[in-house]
Every structure is written in structure tokens, then in C-alpha cells.
Task: structure prediction
Amino acid sequence: MHNNVISLVFLFLSLLLISCTNLTHDTNSTQNSNSPHNSAELYLQPEMGHGHMQSPINIRSFKEKESNGHQITLNYKDKINAVENLGSTVQLDFEAGSTISYEEVKYELKQMHFHTPSEHLVDGITFPMEMHIVAKNSPVNKNAIPKYLVIGILFKEGLNNKFLDEFLNKIPKNEHTLTNLEVGTVRLDDLLYRNDLNDVKNFYHYPGSLTTPPYTQTVQWFIFKHVIEASPEQIKTINAIEGNNARHIQGIFSRSVD
Ligand SMILES: [Zn+2]
Result:
């Protein structure tokens, strides 16, 4: 008899808990129902079957191997010609004609975009923002899978960032719209030294995937070790547009970071 009462109380509490959990999820999905990257949906999707080379990951800096010594070569014209509000992210576009090479594969710089908070973690630490500089190698055979090289730049809260100031007030208010920029007004050179980008030792490198569908596993990831400062207001401005759009970390499996 006593046991039955306990079971009933337990059942009641479980039901209460389940309904509370559902309420929380409902609230989240109505708040941000237009965004395909809202965090509740990302966590609810099982994401099984994408493979064992997925991104982002938690980078364990103390397990880092010696860099393999292969060279990165930038052939980079600082020509950013548009800023886009994609709803799910804020994106800057490169004019065609800038390249980056790694292990004899040449990639064309396409765009840069932002994640708030960071997608990659370092030693379990999440940063408030991460920028991805995306370069793509389009295969000659149109049916083959393209290869990507993505540079990840982590941001922490601190001083106002000059580079971000160059475009923050030019991001279009409406989703899926674009503002053309006069080339030279937004300069990646105001964020990063080219020499730093040309040295693989400045990066954590590992093979991984795109962090948005179709999660293609042909990405050479280079996460810049030096964390860059931006003011809390600047990070908040970007987060207010794109929401929380970081994919959760994935298993490392047999991969290693060098
Ligand atoms: Zn990204």
C-alpha cells in the first residue's frame, strides 16, 4: 500500500516535469520560429548519420600535437564588397579573386560570417563570438563534393574592435537583404595581420565538417589561437540579429588536432 502511494507521487511528479519541459521548448520555438538555427531546434535534432568527422569540436590545447609544417599561402586582396543579414547569421562577402592554398589545394575566399556564441570550444571554454572565413575549392567535375577551408576567429569581451565598427551600422535591418559596400571601407587587415594568417603554427588545425546543413565532411579547419577582443555592445549587436546560432560540439573520434 505504502509503495503504491510512493509510485503515484513519483508518477505525478514525472508528468509535471515532462509538461514543464515541453512548455520551455514551446516558448523557445515561438520566440525564434523563423530562424532555422535556433538553439532549441539544434539540440532537439538527433543529427545521427552525419559521420565521424563533424564540427565544431572542443579543442584540447594541452593535447595539441606539433604542427605538421605544411604551409598555408594567402593570395588575398582585401576586397569586401557586401554585408548581408541572412537572419541566421551576419555575412560579409569577398569580391572574387582571393585565394588561400593548403597542401597544394587552392581555395577561393567566399565570405565571412558570425556565430554567437562560439561554435568551437577551447579546453571546454565557450567564447561569446566566432567568425568563420570560408574558402571553397569547386571541383572541375560538377558532381564531385567541393572542399572547404574555414578559418575560425574567436572573440572575447574587451576593447572596441575597429574592424567590426566598419560595418556594424551597415547591416541591413531586414532579413535576406544585402548592403553593397565600397571596397576598402571594411578591411580584414584591420582585424588580422596577414603574416599571422600565413603561419600554420598560429592555428589549431583539424579535419571536420560544415556546421550547418548539409554538414559536408570536407573541411580543413584552422582555428586562430589568438583570441581577439570586441566590446560587449558589438557582440550584442550581432547576436540581436542572428540569435544563438552555434551548433553544439561533436565527437572527435579518431581525429587529432595539430
Ligand atoms: Zn560558420
Summary: The CA atoms of residues 150 and 221 lie 5 Å apart.
